[in-house]
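Handout for the seminar on molecular recognition.
Each group receives one record of this type.
Step one: identify the two inputs.
Step two: read the structure output and locate the region that could contact MU-OXO-diiron.
Step three: write two sentences on what you found, then compare them with the reference statements printed after the record.
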Amino acid sequence: MDPVKIKEEIYWVGGIDWHIRNFHGYTTIRGTTYNAYLIIDEKITLFDTVKHGFEEEMLERVSKIVSPERIDYLVVNHIEPDHAGGFSYIAQKIKPEKIFITKNGKAGLSAYLHNLDFPFEEVKTGHEVKIGKRTVKFIETPMIHWPDSMISYIPEEKLLISQDAFGQHYATSKRFDDEVDPCVLIQEAAKYYANIVLPFSPQVQKLLKTVKDLGLKIETICPDHGVVWRSKVKDILDLYEKWSSYQADERVVIVYDTMWKSTEKMANAIAEGVFKEGVDARMFKLSTSDITDVMTEVMLAKGIALGSSTLNNNLLPTMASFLTYMKGLRPRKKVGLAFGSYGWSGEAVGQLNEYLKEIQAEVIHEGLKVKYAPTEEVLKTCEELGRLLAQKVKEG
Ligand code: FEO
C-alpha cells in the first residue's frame, strides 16, 4: 500500500498489522496500525516510528515520497515499543539532524536501548519549532498514557498528531474516519479508551482543558493507531469528554461466572428485574467472554452487577482475573451490586463488594449470597434487586 496523503505535503507512512490478535493482553480482533506521519517542508519532519518488524514497510512508504536520508527532523511523541521499537534502526537509517523528545522520553529510551547516541533535543510544553512554513508546537501529556508522552500540534494546518490518544486498534486499508463503518470505528475507539486510556481520565480532562485554554483549532487528528479523524473530530472530542468524566449510558452490565448454574440463575433473575424497569442489560459469563470486550461494556454502562460462586474460600479464577484487570483500569461513578452462590463458607460476595468499593461504586445492597441453589423466593429478591439497580441507573 502506498503512503496516504493526509493534507498537502502531509502523509501517513506507518505500518499495518493485520494479524495481531493480542496486544499486551488487549484482544485486537481487527488488528492495528502503527501510524507515522511525514511533513514535507523546508525541514522534512517525521513524526513517530513503528513497531519492530515494520521498519522496512514504513521506509518503503517514505521512499515513495522522499529518500529517507533527506528527513531532517524526527519527533518521538511516545516511546512504547509499538512506536519506538523501530526507532533505533530508523534513526540510524535516516540520520536526522535533530530528534525532538521529552525528558522522560529520552530517559525511557535510554532504559530500553542502553546506549543512546542520537541528536536528541528535549522539548517541553510550549516549545515550538519552525520547520518552514509550518510550526510544530509540543504539548507534554504525561500519563496519557506513559510518562514520556507528548502530542504535536501544527497550527498552520489545524492538525494534531496525538500519539495514542484518540486511537483505535483497527487495521484497515482506509485511512480516514469517513471511509470506514462508523459503528465499528466508534466501538473500537471506545474499546481503546476503556482498555488503555481510562485510568488516566483525570489527565485527559486536563488535556481537554489545555486544548480549550490555548484555543487550539483542530480540524484533523492524526493518532498513532487506526484512522485519522477529519469528519468526526467534534464527535471524538465529545466522546473523550464523556468517557474521561465517567459519564455512562443508562444500562446495566452483569458480569459473572458460575460453577453449577446457581449464580447464573441469580444473574438471569437480576437481568429480568432490570428489563422490567425498561433498562437495557447486557450479560457476560466470563468463561465464555473476552475481558477486554467486557471492560468496554463496563465503561459504557452506569450499572454493574458482579456475580461469583465461592471456590476454595475465594472468587472463581475468571472473576478474580477480570476484577484485577478492572480495578487497574479504574472505572468510576458506577452503581453496583454483588451476588453469588456458595456451598459452605461463601466469601466470594464479600470479595466482590471489596472490588466495588475499590472502584468507588455506589453499592445498593450488602450483597446477596445463596447457599447451593436459589429458591423461587431468592430469585424474586434477585429480580427486585435488578429493579432497584435499574432505578438507580435511571436516576443518573
Ligand atoms: Fe501505542 Fe502506548 O503505545
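Reference statements: The CA atoms of residues 39 and 111 lie 29 Å apart. Residues 376-395 form the longest helix (20 residues).
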